[in-house]
Amino acid sequence: LLQSGQHSWLAGLKTLLLNVSRAVSSDVLITFSPTVGPSRLNTTEKGKAGKIHLPREIFQSLSSQTVHVVVTVLNIQQLGMFKEINQTAQVLDNTVLGITVGESSISGLQDPVQLTFAHRELPQGLTPQCAFWDPSKGQAGGWCSSGCVTQPGDKGTVCSCDHLSFFTLLLNPALDVPTAKTVMAVATAGCGVVMAFSTFTMAFCIFIRCRFRFEETVRINLGLHVNLVGSLFLLNLAFLLNSGLSGRTHPRTCRFLGGLTHYCLLCCFTWTALEGCQLYLLFVKVLGTYIHRYLAKLCLVGWGFPVLVVGVAGIIGSYGKYSIQTMDHQVIAHLCWITSKHLLVHYITNCGYFGLIFLFNMAVFGVVTQKSCSLQGTGAVQGYHKPWKVALVAAGLFCLLGATWALAFLTYGTSSEAMLYLFTILNSLQGIFIFIWLVVLYYPKTKETTGSLSYIIRHDKTTTASQG
């Protein structure tokens, strides 16, 4: 009756069925192996097989005199089952272990079930985590570690769980605790650096805007820069307050801090998008159009739109306590942020929103770079013939358009320690980059102020008009 496809399916499934009396006076011990399958444990047996320890408590709580104990070893690579969406962790030996006793579900055990997953020494950068399959997680189910304690060892990992289910040992790419704490220390110090240089930058922009007579385009640009740097200042201030107060705040205060931090982050993203829009209008639509009270309308969008997003997220209860921890459940820091139950809010409002902004801004960056290079080729912009100045302008625009934030996408699941360090350090230096860029670019050293973007724009407008 078996077809050829069913033979391969059964090859990945091995089951042991035991009849165990309710009055059993000792624990039940079973061995399992991905190749051999499960069997009753022989006390003289030695080898690399895993072990299952079922406590007496399980059988004493059952009503019938005799129960069926079913232990199943599954090879999920052959079966094509237990695949979690966007899963970053590996399943040890592609092995999932299912345990059922009787016909009812068993949970809340005082004496836990112990499963020993045998393995060699794990590679560096991988942390074992005991998990069970939760069919209610997400749309198609997923791995969960609630109720399980992980005890790693050199020759095996012991999982102590207070219930019966389908279990496995996940190998997660994770940072070790010292590295994670170092990254947090660098991030905290970086917040102070960003706040200091953001203050310098805002003071510098306000000073030259009031001191020198620039054309309207440059004045609008300076106003944009002040608002972007101001949002950076508020974001880093909110993070410092959050990390310092979140561990001992009232739940309502924590929700407020989480919403405030989210608002400041969205403001930073929005002003980054507005910087890109302004560059598009200046370099692509070079002849431009006059907009009454243009900067005030930009402020309404930059500071007002995030209020709507945070308001909706707050109504559905998205904010609360959030713990940053390693895969072996060691807590590194507590934050007031979007809770784990509302991760979809984070993916839409943060990841999705910034992803769209980043794609648009990188397209604008490419156009601006192409325009600048073409103007340099004609010899119109003498001030930019120096290679260091060209590199500085490009790097400044890169930071201004939020490229350093894009590195966060490459640190997903903390799989890349180098990328996590790079993201933390570059974002800490973002305030310094923008400050130096603005000083070199905008401070007038000659009457023509040939170092400013307005000089390039004027030449580009003149060239476009003459071609028309």
TrEMBL record:
Domain GAIN-B: 30-177
Keyword Flavoprotein: no
Biological process terms in GO annotation: adenylate cyclase-activating G protein-coupled receptor signaling pathway; cell surface receptor signaling pathway
Residue ranges annotated for the G-protein coupled receptors family 2 profile domain, each copy included: 187-442
Cell location: Cell membrane
Keyword Cell wall biogenesis/degradation among UniProt keywords: no
One Gene Ontology cellular component annotation held by this UniProt entry: plasma membrane
Keywords, in A-Z order: Cell membrane, Disulfide bond, G-protein coupled receptor, Glycoprotein, Membrane, Receptor, Signal, Transducer, Transmembrane, Transmembrane helix
Pfam families on file: 7tm_2, GPS
UniProt membrane topology term: Multi-pass membrane protein
Transmembrane segments: 183-208, 220-240, 260-283, 295-319, 347-369, 390-412, 418-443
Residues making up the signal peptide according to the UniProt record: 1-25
GO molecular-function terms, A-Z: G protein-coupled receptor activity
PROSITE patterns (alphabetical): G_PROTEIN_RECEP_F2_4 (PS50261), GAIN_B (PS50221)
Protein name as it appears in the record: AGRG3 protein
Native species: Certhia brachydactyla (short-toed tree-creeper)
